[in-house]
Protein backbone atom coordinates (compact mmCIF):
# COMPACT_ATOMS: atom_id res chain seq x y z
CA UNK A 1 0.00 0.00 0.00
CA UNK A 2 1.37 3.45 -0.81
CA UNK A 3 2.89 5.24 2.15
CA UNK A 4 0.80 8.36 1.39
CA UNK A 5 -2.25 6.57 2.82
CA UNK A 6 -0.50 6.25 6.13
CA UNK A 7 0.17 9.94 6.78
CA UNK A 8 -3.20 10.79 8.29
CA UNK A 9 -6.23 8.55 7.91
CA UNK A 10 -8.53 11.34 9.15
CA UNK A 11 -7.95 13.12 5.84
CA UNK A 12 -11.04 12.45 3.67
CA UNK A 13 -9.09 11.77 0.48
CA UNK A 14 -6.73 9.35 2.19
CA UNK A 15 -9.61 7.67 3.98
CA UNK A 16 -11.44 7.16 0.68
CA UNK A 17 -8.27 5.64 -0.81
CA UNK A 18 -8.06 3.36 2.21
CA UNK A 19 -11.66 2.35 1.53
CA UNK A 20 -10.96 1.70 -2.17
CA UNK A 21 -7.94 -0.40 -1.24
CA UNK A 22 -9.50 -2.67 1.38
CA UNK A 23 -13.31 -2.65 1.25
CA UNK A 24 -13.93 -5.23 -1.50
CA UNK A 25 -11.25 -7.62 -0.32
CA UNK A 26 -12.46 -7.45 3.28
CA UNK A 27 -16.06 -7.96 2.18
CA UNK A 28 -15.06 -11.03 0.17
CA UNK A 29 -13.12 -12.56 3.06
CA UNK A 30 -16.09 -12.11 5.40
CA UNK A 31 -18.39 -13.59 2.78
CA UNK A 32 -16.15 -16.64 2.38
CA UNK A 33 -15.82 -17.16 6.12
CA UNK A 34 -19.43 -16.51 7.17
CA UNK A 35 -21.64 -16.59 4.10
CA UNK A 36 -24.05 -14.05 2.66
CA UNK A 37 -26.90 -14.23 5.15
CA UNK A 38 -25.22 -12.01 7.76
CA UNK A 39 -24.51 -9.19 5.27
CA UNK A 40 -20.70 -9.02 5.23
CA UNK A 41 -20.79 -5.83 3.14
CA UNK A 42 -22.72 -4.11 5.95
CA UNK A 43 -20.13 -5.22 8.48
CA UNK A 44 -17.38 -3.77 6.28
CA UNK A 45 -19.27 -0.47 6.18
CA UNK A 46 -19.65 -0.52 9.97
CA UNK A 47 -15.93 -1.25 10.38
CA UNK A 48 -15.06 1.75 8.20
CA UNK A 49 -17.47 3.93 10.19
CA UNK A 50 -15.77 2.86 13.42
CA UNK A 51 -12.38 3.56 11.85
CA UNK A 52 -13.54 7.05 10.84
CA UNK A 53 -14.96 7.73 14.31
CA UNK A 54 -11.66 6.67 15.87
CA UNK A 55 -9.26 7.81 13.15
CA UNK A 56 -7.37 10.18 15.47
CA UNK A 57 -6.80 7.39 18.00
CA UNK A 58 -5.55 4.75 15.55
CA UNK A 59 -1.99 4.70 14.31
CA UNK A 60 -2.13 4.92 10.50
CA UNK A 61 -0.05 1.78 10.04
CA UNK A 62 -2.59 -0.10 12.19
CA UNK A 63 -5.61 0.89 10.08
CA UNK A 64 -5.72 -2.33 8.03
CA UNK A 65 -5.48 -4.54 11.12
CA UNK A 66 -8.10 -2.43 12.88
CA UNK A 67 -10.49 -2.80 9.93
CA UNK A 68 -10.06 -6.56 9.58
CA UNK A 69 -10.36 -7.17 13.33
CA UNK A 70 -13.38 -4.91 13.73
CA UNK A 71 -15.21 -6.40 10.75
CA UNK A 72 -14.50 -9.94 11.91
CA UNK A 73 -15.74 -9.14 15.43
CA UNK A 74 -18.91 -7.61 14.00
CA UNK A 75 -19.52 -10.82 12.04
CA UNK A 76 -18.91 -12.97 15.11
CA UNK A 77 -21.46 -10.89 17.02
CA UNK A 78 -23.94 -11.34 14.17
CA UNK A 79 -23.34 -15.11 14.21
CA UNK A 80 -24.11 -15.22 17.94
CA UNK A 81 -27.26 -13.16 17.40
CA UNK A 82 -28.33 -15.32 14.46
CA UNK A 83 -28.12 -18.47 16.60
CA UNK A 84 -30.62 -16.94 19.01
CA UNK A 85 -32.93 -15.79 16.21
CA UNK A 86 -32.90 -19.18 14.49
CA UNK A 87 -34.11 -20.89 17.66
CA UNK A 88 -37.36 -18.94 17.40
CA UNK A 89 -38.00 -18.80 13.68
CA UNK A 90 -37.92 -21.10 10.72
CA UNK A 91 -36.36 -19.61 7.59
CA UNK A 92 -38.00 -21.06 4.51
CA UNK A 93 -36.24 -20.23 1.25
CA UNK A 94 -38.21 -19.63 -1.94
CA UNK A 95 -38.61 -22.92 -3.72
CA UNK A 96 -39.43 -22.42 -7.38
CA UNK A 97 -37.50 -23.06 -10.57
CA UNK A 98 -37.87 -23.82 -14.28
CA UNK A 99 -35.48 -26.78 -14.08
CA UNK A 100 -36.56 -30.41 -14.12
CA UNK A 101 -37.25 -31.96 -10.70
CA UNK A 102 -34.49 -34.53 -11.24
CA UNK A 103 -31.93 -31.82 -12.05
CA UNK A 104 -33.03 -29.74 -9.06
CA UNK A 105 -32.68 -32.75 -6.77
CA UNK A 106 -29.20 -33.64 -8.09
CA UNK A 107 -28.15 -30.01 -7.81
CA UNK A 108 -29.39 -29.74 -4.21
CA UNK A 109 -27.65 -32.98 -3.26
CA UNK A 110 -24.41 -31.85 -4.88
CA UNK A 111 -24.55 -28.43 -3.19
CA UNK A 112 -25.16 -30.06 0.20
CA UNK A 113 -22.16 -32.34 -0.31
CA UNK A 114 -20.05 -29.46 -1.65
CA UNK A 115 -20.93 -27.23 1.32
CA UNK A 116 -20.24 -30.12 3.72
CA UNK A 117 -16.80 -30.72 2.23
CA UNK A 118 -16.09 -26.97 2.16
CA UNK A 119 -17.06 -26.69 5.81
CA UNK A 120 -14.71 -29.55 6.70
CA UNK A 121 -11.72 -27.78 5.15
CA UNK A 122 -9.41 -25.88 7.44
CA UNK A 123 -10.45 -22.22 7.50
CA UNK A 124 -7.21 -21.04 5.92
CA UNK A 125 -7.62 -23.53 3.05
CA UNK A 126 -11.27 -22.60 2.51
CA UNK A 127 -10.59 -18.84 2.47
CA UNK A 128 -7.60 -19.15 0.12
CA UNK A 129 -9.52 -21.50 -2.19
CA UNK A 130 -12.59 -19.26 -2.39
CA UNK A 131 -10.52 -16.12 -2.91
CA UNK A 132 -8.80 -17.84 -5.84
CA UNK A 133 -11.62 -19.81 -7.44
CA UNK A 134 -14.66 -17.64 -6.72
CA UNK A 135 -13.17 -14.16 -6.52
CA UNK A 136 -10.59 -14.82 -9.26
CA UNK A 137 -7.62 -13.60 -7.23
CA UNK A 138 -4.19 -14.79 -8.37
CA UNK A 139 -2.02 -16.81 -6.03
CA UNK A 140 0.08 -13.71 -5.42
CA UNK A 141 -3.01 -11.62 -4.59
CA UNK A 142 -4.32 -14.30 -2.23
CA UNK A 143 -0.95 -14.35 -0.50
CA UNK A 144 -0.97 -10.55 -0.10
CA UNK A 145 -4.55 -10.47 1.23
CA UNK A 146 -3.87 -13.22 3.77
CA UNK A 147 -0.37 -12.05 4.69
CA UNK A 148 1.34 -15.28 3.64
CA UNK A 149 3.86 -16.29 0.98
CA UNK A 150 2.78 -17.23 -2.53
CA UNK A 151 3.94 -20.82 -1.97
CA UNK A 152 1.79 -21.13 1.17
CA UNK A 153 -1.20 -19.70 -0.75
CA UNK A 154 -0.66 -22.23 -3.56
CA UNK A 155 -0.36 -25.06 -1.05
CA UNK A 156 -3.64 -24.07 0.62
CA UNK A 157 -5.51 -23.65 -2.66
CA UNK A 158 -4.34 -26.94 -4.15
CA UNK A 159 -4.82 -28.74 -0.85
CA UNK A 160 -8.44 -27.58 -0.74
CA UNK A 161 -8.98 -28.50 -4.40
CA UNK A 162 -7.57 -31.99 -3.88
CA UNK A 163 -9.79 -32.57 -0.84
CA UNK A 164 -12.82 -31.41 -2.82
CA UNK A 165 -11.91 -33.71 -5.72
CA UNK A 166 -11.42 -36.64 -3.33
CA UNK A 167 -14.91 -36.16 -1.88
CA UNK A 168 -16.85 -35.01 -4.97
CA UNK A 169 -16.53 -37.28 -7.99
CA UNK A 170 -18.32 -34.71 -10.19
CA UNK A 171 -15.22 -32.50 -9.98
CA UNK A 172 -13.05 -35.23 -11.53
CA UNK A 173 -15.04 -35.37 -14.79
CA UNK A 174 -13.37 -34.07 -17.93
Short characterization:
The protein is mainly alpha-helical and 174 residues long.
What does this protein look like?
This protein is mainly α and 174 residues long. The chain has seven helices and no strands. It has helices spanning 12-34, 40-53, 63-88, 101-120, 123-133, 139-146, 150-167. α2 crosses α3, α4 (101-120) packs across α7 (150-167) and α5 (123-133) crosses α7 (150-167). The longest helix has 26 residues, at 63-88. Mean pLDDT is 81; it is low at 1-6.
Helix content: 55-70%
Unreliable residue runs: 1-6
- The count of helical stretches stands at 7
Tally of extended strands? Answer: 0
Radius of gyration: 19 Å
**Quick check: average pLDDT?**
81
State the shape.
globular
Structural class: mainly alpha
Topology:
Elements: H1 12-34, H2 40-53, H3 63-88, H4 101-120, H5 123-133, H6 139-146, H7 150-167
Helix pairs in contact: 1-2, 1-3, 1-5, 2-3, 4-7, 5-7, 6-7
Note the main attributes of this structure:
69% helix, globular, disordered N terminus, 174 residues, single chain
Amino acid sequence: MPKSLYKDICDKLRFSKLYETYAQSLSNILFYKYGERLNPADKVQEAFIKLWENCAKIAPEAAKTYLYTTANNLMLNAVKHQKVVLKYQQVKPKDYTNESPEFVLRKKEFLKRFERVLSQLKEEERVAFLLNKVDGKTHKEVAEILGITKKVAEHRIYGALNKLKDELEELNRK
